[in-house]
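Predict the structure of Aldehyde dehydrogenase.
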Amino acid sequence: MSNIHNILSKQKAFFSTQKTKDVTYRLELLKALKSEILSKEKAIYKALKEDFNKSEFESFISEFGLVVSELNLVIKNLKKWAKPKRVKASLLTFPSKDYIYKNPYGNVLVIGPWNYPFLLTMEPLIMAVASGNTVVLKPSELTQKTSSLIAEIIANVFPKEVATVCQGDKDISTQLLAQKWDYIFFTGSAKVGTIVAKAAAKYLTPITLELGGKSPCIVDDTTDLKLTARRIVWGKFLNGGQTCIAADYLIVKKNIKEVFIEMLKKEIIRAYGNNPKRSKDFPRIIDKKNTERLAKALNNVDVIFGGEIDIENKYIAPTLVDSPNLDSQLMTDEIFGPILPILHYKTEKDIENIIWNSEKPLAFYIFSKNISFVENTLKKFEFGGGAVNDLLIHFGNPKLPFGGVGSSGMGTYHGKHGFNTFSHEKSIVKRGTWIDPPARYAPYGFKKLNIIKKLFKWFG
Ligand code: NAD
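Done. Here is the predicted structure for Aldehyde dehydrogenase.
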């Protein structure tokens, strides 16, 4: 029996003991996880620094801090979330007490990406455990230090039959995907998302796919340009541009484009200095392969700022590119790096032509004070979620469901939405035996039908 099969068999056996249905047990595990994570705070920053030069500040705001907040939220609310919820009886169920029970799916597989390697593995794991599932977690092979630390943290807190980590590359992923899971939660590229969906289809396993895409950012001429430039530079170059919800490219109103580009340049220098390679706050590209991919995308385009490439040191400078062709690599593939193409528009039709050139994006941003333009634009385009007059921040509110649509993903999580994602909602109607209206039973006849029709009319 292979190791993976062995682990899953143990988790299946443990799930059937009903122990994970006990909310108090789940809370004990989550509290233990919180104290283990708090005790490893420095080690987590060190691992992220070693994996891709991520600063402590960025590691706190975009990984550690968010994981601890999510743990605090779930520890505070779990009892309430897990309780069966009473709903009103309907005409057909009355008289009855009707409930929605939140039930764990069972054995969950979580596969994570490398770009926020701590956050994007721990958050689904936390919610899967909170919902009463067992978990096998496969973190990315590209962030060796962080993935090993995650394995250590999980091993220190969870019995293997509740949660465990399988480290490795796509071969391990493939072996994991060949098993029969009760739920699969995948974060990564659309290409691998398709492989996951196919594997899940074999057993009709429900899935969440958190994927990527080309997220546009529109800047019109009513916005505060200086503040807009500052916010865009922050949101685009955070994590070295390796953020699934970063603005992939800008679409700027033509009459302000030149002046806005100058402001972007100033903001990049303000944030990372004249030589961002020396900035301790500017991360590296995750590996050589991705650095080469980004370098290739800069061939034959109009680089108007940055553009320095050092493949050996996995460095690409924060780079601005003017008006690349819509059929160039920069505008057909997700960029996922510190390169920002700047396109322009005169009419709303121009915006449509650019955005509808790509699949439905994960995020969408618009900087404008024109309320009707903002509302029309938000309604017109399909995308996972987004923000007005800022980047990324919709990720930070656990009350908002986070996820993509179409090729940017399916399903959502964060806060209670995450708990719901890993729970099956069982509908339960509890009826008494003290009354049993005879109208529904055969023999039917016109009289009974008339009574039923009247009831439908009254209650409908
Ligand atoms: P990836 O798809 O290459 O890898 C993700 C995971 O899948 C890794 O654990 C990897 O080992 C595994 N994997 C790779 N190839 C596989 C295969 N053939 N079969 C089975 N498993 C395989 O993605 P990545 O490079 O780690 O991350 C970048 C992508 O993830 C970007 O597209 C980005 O937009 C997306 N992303 C999305 C979100 C989100 O929340 N929606 C968050 C972060 C990243």
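The pocket of nicotinamide-adenine-dinucleotide is lined by residues 111-115, 120, 138, 140-141, 169-170, 173-174, 187-189, 192, 195, 210-212, 244, 334, 336, 362, 404, 409 (CB under 6 Å).
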